[in-house]
Fold these 2 entries.
Entry 1:
Amino acid sequence: MLKEQKDALIDQFLVLIHYSKQVIPFLKNLDNKEKKALVPTIKKLGRFHNSWDQKAKTKILDSLPRIIAAHGEGRKSRIIEAGFICCTLKDYQRLDWSASNHVIDGKYEEKILSWYVPSWFSELINEDPPWRLDYLKIIEWTEMDILQPSDALIAQKLVGILTERNHGFSKEPWAYKLNVLETYPQTLEDHIWKVFEHPTSINLGYYAADSETNRWHQAFHQLVDEGKLPRERVMKGCLAAQSRDLDRNLSIWFMNLFNSFEPKEEELLILQEEFFIALNSPYSKVINDILKIFKGLVKKSAFDHRQFIQQAPELLTSETKSIVTSSLMILDKLGRKWKDLKGEVCLLATEAYIHQDKNIQVRVSKLVKKYGAIESDELKLKILEYAPFLFYEAKELVGQWLDPEEEEEMDDFLLEEYNVLEEGNKLAEYENFDDILFFLNQSLDRNELIDLELALSYLPKLHRLLEPQLVNRLEPFLKRALDSFGRKESWSVNRGDMEFDYYRYLNDYGKKLMNDFPAQMENYRDYRRLKREKFKEEHWNKDFYLPRLKPIDGHKPKANLYFIFWKLMMKSKNILESGHQLELLSKPTHRPCWIDPKIFIKRIKNYEANRFNIDFYDLQLAFLRLAPESNAKITEADLAQIQKGELGDMLNYHLGYASLPQAARANLQLWLPLILIRNEKKELEEIAPLLELEKLEKIKPLHWEAKATRKRERQFNYTSRKMEDSGDFYIERKLVFQADKSLLIKSNISPFIKQAKKFLGMNTESRSSILGYVTYLEDVNSYFEPNSFDTERFLYFFPSYPEHMVRLIIKKNLVYSQYSGEVDARNIASGLRVLNETWHRGNYGEEVFVLLAGSFLHKKKICKELALETWIKAVSLGKMDSVRLGRTLGKMESVEFAPLKRFTDIIFGGMLDVSSLHKKALFELLNAMIPLLPDQAIKNTKKLLDAYFELKQELKVQELDKTVIVKLECWKEVSSLKSLINKNL
C-alpha cells in the first residue's frame, strides 16, 4: 500500500471514529492489509483514552495525521469495535481493561459476529470469561460455530444456571430451575461432569430461602433419584475432585456431597481405589472423613489393607493430630484382625514417635506392647532410634525393648566459650586505593550492618592515598551517594536513617574534593548543581533535602540516639582533614562488632605517638566492644606499651588486672560504663553515694508489671458523630513500666544528673560522654522511634552492655502482645539477633529477660525462633539464669499476657530434647514459672504440666518444690488436670 493511500485511509477512519457511527460498514469492506494499516492508529487512540496524563494525551494527538477532539464513551466503544476487527488478541486487550466484556454486548453479535469472528475469539473468552456470559449463550455460540469453549469455561458458567434471583418482594429470593439442566442433552451427558474437574463457585450462594440446603446438593440428589445421573459416577466424581487442584472449601463441599448420599458398605468397598487416591488431598477434613469410613471397613475381608499399609507412613507423620490418631486406630484393628500383620503394624506405628505429643507416643507404645515381638531385632532398633525423644510414660511401656546398656543417652555437653577472635570472624583489612574504593562502593549496598562504621575509618585512609589522576575514579561513587541521599527509595524497607546520615557525610566529602580538585571534579559539580535544581522544582523535597546538603558540622541530628553516629562521623572528618594515619578506636576488627584488645592497644599507642586527641565517645564505644575473652589475651607487657595515666588505669581495670582505682571517683562519668560492665556489687555500693543514689546498679532500673484491665469498648456513632461506649467490655493486657523515683535523693542533684540534663538539651559541649546516651534511654518519657533497620546497629554499639537499648525496644515494641505489628516484630527480632550473636554474660539485667520472655510469647514465628536459639546458646555456654527467665514468664502469664500455647509449642518444638543440660535448665525455668501462674488454671496448662512432669521423670526428681506443690493443689480442682497431678505428686 502506497503512503498516500495509507494516509487517506487513516484520515477517513479518524473522521468516522469522531463524527459517525458508520465505522463498522467501513471496516467490513477492508481487506487484511488495510486493517493492519489501521492498527497503529487504533493503539494510539486506545492509549489516549486510557491515559490520565494531559501531556501524554497531547503528545498522542500530535502524532496522529489528523487532530481530533477528545472522544467520549461513544467514541471509545467505536475504537474498541475497530480493535476487535483489526487487532491481534494482545493489542485488543490493551485497549480496555475489560475488553472481553464488550463482546457480550448484543450489538457485537448483530453488527460483527454475524460476518466476522477473529481467530483468537475463543482464546479471549476462555482466558477472560465475560462476567455477563452465561451457559446458554455458550451453547448457542458453540452451535453457531462462533466459540470453542474450554472445559473450565463450561464448568464455571454451568454452576450459575441452576438458580435465578427473583426481583421485587418475593419470599423466595432465588428461583430454582432444575429443568434448565435438561434443555440440552449434552448438559447431563457431558458438561455436568466437568464441574467435578475444574474450580467453580458451586459451593457458594445457591441456597433455598428457608434452609441452609445447597441447591446443587438438592439438584444432584434429585437427578440421581430420578435416574438421570448414575449414583456411582456422582460419588466417584466427588472423590476424584479431591485429587484436583481445588481450594479447601470446594474440596470439602464435594466431600460433604459424597457423605450426603450415605453410601452403603458394599458401595464403599467398590470405591476403595478412589478413596486411596483421595487420601493424597492436602486438606485434613477430607482425609479425616475417609479415615472415619476406613474404621468401619477395616475388619472386612474385602478391605485392601495392603494399600492402606503402603500409605500409612505418610499419614502417621502428618502434622494433624487427628489424622495420626485415626491411622493408629486403624493399624490397631488391622493387628487384631490379621495376626500375620502384627510385626509390620508395630514397625509402621513407630513412625508416629516423631511427634512430640505425649498422647500419640503413649498410644503407639501401647500398640507396640500389645502386638510387638520381644525377639524382634528390627523393632528394637526402631524403638532405640526414637528412645532419646520419647516421653517417660511412652518409654516405660516399651521398656522391654530398651536395654539400658545399649540405649543411647543424650550427651550432657557444655560448649566451649565461643572465641569471637577466631580467624573466621576477622574482618578484612584494605590497604591500597583500589580495594578501599571497592569496599566503599559496597558500603552503599548494605552488605553488612557494620560497613558504615568501617567506612568512617577507610574514607580518611582513601583520602591519604588520593592523587590528582585518581580523583575522577571517585566520581561514580560520589554520584551514587548523592542519588541515594536524594531518592525516596533510600528510605525503603532496605534502608535506615543511619545510612541517610552516611550519605550526607559522603556528599560533604564530595564538596571538599570540589574545593581541593576543581578541574577534576567539574562533572560532579555539574551533577550536584542539577540535583539541587531538581530538589527546588519538587516543592515537597525542597525544605527537606536542601538543608541537608550543608556540611555535617552545622547540621546535628535531632534524635539523640543518632548523635552517637554523628560524633563518629565528626571524628572521621577530623582525622581526614588532619592527614594523620589513624582510624577510629571503635572500629570493629571481628564480626559482628568486636575489637581485638591487642589492636586496640596499637591504636591507642598510635594516637599517643601522633599527639592526637581521643574522643570520649569513640573511646568508650571501643571499651564496650572489646572482646570478652580479652583478659586471657592481653599481658601486662602489652599494657606497658601505653603511657601511664588514666587511660592505662582504665585498661588495667577493664581487663581484670586491677581493682577500681581511687582516682576513678573523680571522673565517674567516664568510668561508669566500665563499672556497669564489671557489675561487681561491692564497687557499685562503694561509689553509689558519690552519685547520690542508693544503689548504682539500680539507676532507674526496669520496674515493670503485667496488668489485665477490663475496659469498655468504644465505637463511632455516625448519628451523633462522636465516639460512644458500645456497652461491651474487653480485657486489655499490657506491660506497665514505672520509674523508681525513691532511688533519687531529692535534697541535692549531683553533677552526674546535671550532665544528663544538659545532654537531653542540644548542648554539644556536654556530650563528651556516652553516659549521656545511657541516661537518655533511662528517661521513661523520652521519645524515640527508630527506623527498625537501625536497631541492630544501635545494639552493635554496646555488645557488652545492651540493657538500656533493649529497654527501649521493650517499651516501644512489646507493651501489647495482641497488637504487635510488623515494625514491632522487626525491632524485637533485631534485638534478639544481636543478643544471640554477642551473648557472653551471665548477669544481664531485667531488660534482657523481659525481651526474651516476651519473645517466647510473641505471635510472630521469627521472634519465637530467635528466642529459642538464644536460650539454647546461653544455656550451652553456662550463661543463662533460667530461674530469672522462669519468673519473668510466670509474671507475664499471671495475667495471661499472651496465649500459653505459644510457649508450650516452643517447649515441645525445640526446648525439650536438646541435651540433658538443657532439660535441667528447662526444669529450673518451669519450677520458677509455675508458682507465679494464676490459681485458676489458664488455657493450655495441661500441656505445660505434661512437659513439667516429663522432665521430673527424666531427671529422676524425687521431691517437687513446695511452692510448685501449692500451685498444683489449687489446679487439682480442675477435672481435666486432677488425674495428671495426682499421678505425679
Entry 2:
Amino acid sequence: MAYVKTFVLMPSHSLDDFPVDLGDEQAASLLNHNAVSWHPALLAQTGLLPQWHRADVPPPPTAGLVVFVPEVAEQWLTGGWIEQTRGYGVRVIAGASDRDALIGQLFPEGEESGGDWAAADPDLVGDFFALGTCFLQMELLSRQQRYFTSLDELTIQTRAVAAARAWLAGESALAREKLRSCFERLHESREKFYPPVCYQVDLCLVAAEQSGDLLAAPNTSARPMNLLFSGEVLEEIAAMRPDVANELANRLGSGTTEVVGGELMTPPTSLVPLGTSLWHLAEGLKVYENHLRMRPVVWGRRSFGLAAGWPQWLERAGFRGALHIALDDGIYPDEEHSRFRWQGFNGSQIRAMSRIPLPVESAGSYLRFASRLSESMDHDEVGAVVWARWPAVKSPFFEDFLRIAHYAPVLGEFSTISHLLTAHNSGGPVKSHAPQEYWPPNLLHHVALREPAPISRYASHIVRHQKMRQVGWCQTLVQTMLRQHGMVASIEREIELAVPGEEIVETEQLEAIEQRLDAERTNAAERLAKLLIDPAVSAEGWLLINPSSTAVTLPVTLATKVEPSVNAERRVVTVPGGGFAWVPRQRPVEVGKGEGCVVDDFTLRTDLFEVTIHPETGGIARVRRNGERANRLSQQLGIRFAKERPYRTSDETEETDPEMVRYSPMKLISSEVIGQSASYGAIRTTGELIDPERLTVLARFTQTVTVWPGASVFEIRLSIELLGALPADPWNEYLAARFAWNDSQAALTRTVMGAALPVGMDRFECTGGIEIAEEDCRVSISTGGLPFHRRHGERMFDTLLQVPGETANEFRFLVGLDQPCLGEFSEQLLVEPLVVPVASKLRGGIDRGWLLNFDQRNVRLIRLQRSEKGLGLLMVIAETEGVAVSLNLRCFWNPQVARRVGLDGTVLSELVVTNDSVRVELASHEVAWIEVLFD
C-alpha cells in the first residue's frame, strides 16, 4: 500500500485543550502514536508531516490514508468506525501502544509499503521519533507561554522529508544534518517566546545493588547527569563493584557527572541530636573523598531530612548548593524554584533548587512537561525541569528528550545541578523558612510498616548519644593532659551507625552497644578522676564530673562500688559546667536550708514550690511557687480517641445527654507517701485509664512524683500497662502524658537541632525540652528524648508515650521552674553527671573546679575531640537561645593558638587568646568549630 497522508486523532477539540492529565497507559499510547507517525519511511512516502485531527470528527476515508488512533481517542469515535474505515483502504493504527507494535501495524511484514530499508541506519529512526516528540512539546509549550503563532511547519516539513529520504538512501550524515536543521529551527521558534537558556536536570537515584546499571546505561558519559547517593551507599558500591567506584571517580573529573549527597547515613534531622547530624555529614564527606577523590558540592538526600539548620551547616562544610526537595513523604515549604537562596534560621544562605522532579518512568510526566517548564519560565530566573529515575529505568520518551538535547537545546540543555545554580551571578530570591514548616513522616512510616519501638528508638538513641559525649569528653581531656598522641579510640562510630532511620537495628546489637558504652563511660570517668584527686589525702566521697558546658544543680544518684543499688542515695548537688565537684561520704550539717520536704496525702512542698496531686485522677492538679496562688502546670495521662466518645459520669437519665470526651478518663485507685525526709519527698499513685463509653479498663498506671529541697525541679516517673491495642493512626489515637497551663498567652518553645525554637504546628518534634513561658514564670519540661508531641488549643500539649508497636512502658520527666536556659535544662534528665566513688580529696585542697568553662549559659558544647594538627582540642559549640553572644571560653592550659575552622578543618579566622581564655563571637543559633592548640 502506498501512503499519501498521515493523521493522528486528537482526543480534544484542538491543541489548546489537549489532555495532559492522563494515566500512564493512555499517556504512553498517545505519545507513542505521535512519535511513530514521524517514522522516516512514512515521511519519505507521503512527503508531508503528520497532522493532528479531531477524533470526534475524523477525516473522510481515502485510500492510502494513515490514521493513528491512540487509546484515549477511541472513545471519541462512533462504534465500528475503525473496521468500516479500514474497508476503504485506510491504514488505521489502533489497539496498541508499544512503538514496535505500532511499527508492525504500519509496515506489516510481507508488504512493500515500507520500501527497502537495507541501507538505512536503524538508530536514526529514534531521532525521527524524537523530532515528532519535540514538535508536539513545542506546540504545547508555545500555548502554555501564550504564544499562538504557528511553528514554521513548511520549513520543518521540507527538511524532515529530505532527512527521511536521505535516511532511506543510506546517507546517514546528510540525514543527521537535515535533522539538526529541523531541531535548530524549533530552537529558534522557542527563543521567540523564551530567549534565555533553560535547563533539564537528570537526577539519578543510586542504590548499591543497581550500581552496575550506571555503566551499562547508554550515553551516561556524554551528557550531564547527577547521581544521588549517600556515603553509606558509596561504601557498599566500593565493596561490591570497585570497578563502578573507579569509573565514577574518573567521570567526576570530566565535569559531566556530578555526585549529589553529603552524609554517611541520612537519619531524620529533627529527631536526632545535632551532634549526630554533624557527625554523619563529616564522616560522609570523608567517604566520598576516599573513594571518589573529591567531595560533593551539592547536598541532597533520598529520605526526608530537610530542616532549617542545613544552610548554615552546609555553608560551613564547603557546599555550593542544595536540593530542597523531598523524594518521599513529609511536609516542607514546597514552593518551587529552579534556583533560590535558602536562608536558615540563623541567617546563613546557600543556593538551592526546589523544583519537584518528574518521574522518568511515568508516561504522564511527558504530557505534563510543557506546563511544568512553562511554569518555571514564568516564575524563575531560568526555566528548569528535573527528572528523577533509577539507573535501570528506561523510557522511550526520556530517550527522545536525550536525542533532542543532542541536536539542540530546544526544550532545555541537560545540566549538572551546580552549573544550574551558579551559571549566572544572581542566585535567585531569598527564601527563609521557619523550623516549624518542616515535619518528618517517620512516625507514620514506622506504624504503617509495623516496626518496633517507633517512639523509644529515638529517645534511646538520644540517651546513648549523650553518654557517648561524656565518654568522648573524658577520654579527650585525659589524653590531652597526658600529652598522648593519636586520636581517641571511641565507641562513637558504633553508636552513630545505629542511629534510627530507614533500617531497623536489632535489639541484641543495641544491647551490646549499650553494655560496652556503660563500661567505657565508667572507665573514662575513673581515668579522669585519677588525674584530679590527691592520693595522699584520704577521705571517702564521690567525684562528680560534668561534661556539660554549663553548671547543673539537680539530684544525683550517689552509690558505692560495693552493693551500689543498696547504698545509693540521691542528693541535690551543684557541679560546675565542664568541671567537677567532690562530695564527702558523710553528709555535712546543713544550716539555713529550712525543714526539708513537707509531704501529706496529696501535697509535696519544698522551700521553693509545692506540687499537689489530684485526689480523683492521680495526676498533678497544680504546681505553684511558694507565696503564689497561680497554678503553673497540671498533668494527666490519657488515651486520645480519633472521635469524641460519650461519657456518663453518674446515673443520668436516658433523657440527659452524656458528656462527650476526647480522652480516656483517669481514675485514681491508690495513693501513698513513699518518701518524707530532709533529703526528698515522694508520692506514688496508681490508677486506671477508663473507656468512657463502656467503662472498661484500657490501661493501668503507676506515677511517682519526687521533690528535693533546694532544687527548683521535680521528677515524674511513669509505669504504664496498656491492656489493648491502639489503632494504627498514631497522630490521632495514642497514649500520652498531657500537660496544661493557665495562661493562653504563654509562649511555647521546644529544643530541636541544638536550638530553642518556637512551637508552630500542632504536631511537632522535640529532642530535648519544652518551655512554657508566662510573663512572670517559666516552666521547663525535659521529656527524656521522647520526640513526638501534639499541641491542643492555646494551653495544652500531649507527649506521645505509646502508639502501635511501641514496647517501652516506663518513662521519666523532669520539670523545672524558672530555669535560665532551656537547652541546658533539657540535657539534665538524659544523663546525670558522672559519679566516681573515691577515697581521696581533690588536688590543691579544693572541692570543685573546671577544665573547660563557658561563661554563657546559652552556649552548648556539642562535641569535643582531639585536634589533628597538634596537641590541642577541636570543639563544636552552638548558641541555643537565638541571641548573639560574646563567649569567653576558658581552658585548663593557656592556649597558644585559637581559631575558627570549617567542618573540613579549613581555617576561617584567628581568635583572640588572653591567658587561659579564648574570645568567640557567636551569632544567633550559630554552630561553630573552634580549634585550640596548646603547643
